[in-house]
Specification:
about 40% helix; mainly alpha; about 5% strand; 10 helices; two-stranded antiparallel ribbon; about 230 residues
Length: about 230
């Protein structure tokens, strides 16, 4: 069935734009590069560029015509505010974002050893030179797109699951799905990534906690009815 591909192992082989799931990495990179601080505030008016009113808008503006008002990095994660991340991407630039995406395991297979596994697309300068020859260098708008998970960037569900584990663990680590009868892991060997800075991870984790556990967070419907403490 070429149309519906029922036997396709989508978790490891299908590629999708990551969308807002990439925003925690954008915030981490911005904090680590000091282009944004925990005191930074961006005002969301619903649109990013007055001269381009029909593009680069916040999802809440598209949905209701409203805006988020003043946002910090933490609240921007909670609210998934596009305008904050457009501004963060604009200050940061595309190249640092792409380098950090590589550090957290994007653009490569995760070490499962499955022949179906896709590395996704990480638009490095080499990738752009080969596939976007008329615009080999990063454009200003590339940073806006990559900062909220659009543009040429694609990922697999497995990569994003491992990204969540990376933010929790503090470094990228390969995925092990299978072991031989002798106890040896089956799959491509991937070196562990470098340690992420706990100072900035703490801010990102707090923001992600608020996504689920604060009323109005974009995933508050997923909150578990448990006693949980703020990080």
């Amino acid at each position: 069935d070429a149309r519906w591909t029922p036997l396709r192992f989508r978790a490891v082989s299908s590629q999708f734009p990551p969308g807002s799931t990439i925003k925690p990495v954008t915030l981490y990179t911005s904090l680590a590069q000091a282009t944004v601080t925990t005191a930074t505030r961006v005002t969301c008016s619903g649109t990013f560029r007055k001269d381009v009113p029909n593009a680069f808008r916040c999802w809440v503006f598209n949905k209701t015509g409203g805006n988020h008002g003043e946002e910090s990095g933490e609240t921007a994660l909670r609210d998934s505010c596009n305008i904050f991340f457009f501004a963060a991407g604009d200050k940061l630039g595309a190249a640092p974002l792409i380098r950090e995406f590589a550090q957290v395991g994007l653009g490569i297979t995760q070490g499962t050893g499955l022949i179906e596994e896709s590395p996704g697309i990480l638009p490095t300068p080499e990738w752009l030179a080969a596939r976007r020859p008329k615009m080999k260098k990063y454009q200003r708008a590339d940073a806006w797109n990559y900062a909220f998970g659009q543009g040429e960037l694609t990922v697999t569900p497995l990569q994003m699951a491992n990204l969540a584990a990376t933010l929790a663990r503090g470094r990228f680590q390969q995925v092990t799905l299978m072991k031989s009868a002798a106890g040896q892991r089956v799959g491509v060997e991937r070196k562990p990534g470098g340690e992420l800075d706990e100072q900035w991870l703490t801010t990102v984790r707090r923001g992600l906690w608020r996504v689920v556990n604060e009323k109005g967070g974009t995933a508050d419907v997923a909150r578990l009815d448990l006693d949980t403490a703020v990080l």
